[in-house]
Every structure is written in structure tokens, then in C-alpha cells.
Amino acid sequence: MTSRAPLRRRLGFTMIETLLVMGVAAILFALAVPQIARIKTSTTLRAGHQQLSAAFSAARSASLQKGKTSTLTIDGSTARVSVMSGLNATSVNVFGPVRLDGDLGITLTPIAGAPTSLNFDARGMLTPTPAAVLKYRLSTSAGADTLCISPAGVILPQGCQL
Predict the structure, then answer these.
(1) pTM (whole model) above 0.85
(2) Helix, strand, or coil here: 7?
(3) Structurally, how many domains does the chain consist of?
(4) Residue 159: per-residue pLDDT
(5) What is the pLDDT of residues 29-53, one digit of tens each?
């Protein structure tokens, strides 16, 4: 009678299998990290662009709605909208402040002499009317975007060039 030794049952993974899986995971992680950083930068810039666009739109619509001059004030990387109200012409804050630097880490810079205080008249037009398109640069440490405003005070579509 021949007796067979029972086969050893294999439990777990070998060291080589574990190292191979860890190596593949490390390669995938190294490929994904730069993409994640690019997505974060573009999302941050898009959010800043939308917030600054909202401030310009709020200034224009406040002047139209109230029938009085509204002012968009850009102070560093903060934007706020106020409108003259009442018989004694007091300034009332109607939008903001939007803090691009604190909330999103974005630096806001007027380009080529773009004003930091813009007035919209009761018809929603910039006064005084600028001679050229107004450009504002939004930048982070990893990227930049530009917001352009027409001489009439209308936000131009994305893609305006410096």
C-alpha cells in the first residue's frame, strides 16, 4: 500500500505577487497625480471666473433694476457691488464681497489699465465708456484665465486673448 502525503493547501499570496501588485498600483498612482492636479487647477479657475462674472452681472442688473448707478469695486482679489439708494444717495452693498484669494487662492489683476472701480448707469452701460475691452486676469500658482468685458459692460465669452 502506497500512502500519499496530503497536498499542502496554499494560504495567502507570495511576496513576489504582493510586490507586483504594489508596483502596478504605484505606476497607476504616478500617472494619475498630474491629471488630478490639472483638474483641480482648472476647476478652481472656472469657479473664480464664474464668481467674478457673477459680480459683473450683479452690478449691471442692479443698475437696471434700481434705475440708479451701481458700482463694482475690485479691491485686491475681492469684488463687491453697491448701488446708490434712497433720497440721500447712500451707498448700499447688494452683492459680495467675493473673496477670490481667500476662498479659492486666486489672484485678480486688472490688465492694461482696466479700472478697479466700474460704474454702470441706469441703462446698464459702463460709464464712462472705455475705449477698449477691459481684461482681468485670474491666476493661481498653476494656471491662469482671463475675464473680458466689452465697452458696453457685457461679459465676453471665454477665450478672449490677452
Answers:
(1) no
(2) coil
(3) 1
(4) 60
(5) 999 988 998 898 889 999 998 999 9
Cβ burial, residue 56 (10 Å; 0-12/13-18/19+):
buried
Q: Output the domain CATH number for residue 90.
A: 3.55.40.10
Give 80-85's long-range contacts (Cβ < 8 A, gap of 24+): 80/55, 81/55
Q: Say how far apart CA 72 and CA 83 lie, in whole Å.
A: 9
Q: Which three cell numbers stand for residue 85?
A: 439708494
Concatenate the DSSP letters of all residues of 116-161 into one string.
Answer: SEEEE-TTS-EESPPSS-EEEEEE-SS-EEEEEE-TTSPBPPS---
Torsion angle of alpha carbons 104, 44, 52, 108, nearest 10°?
60
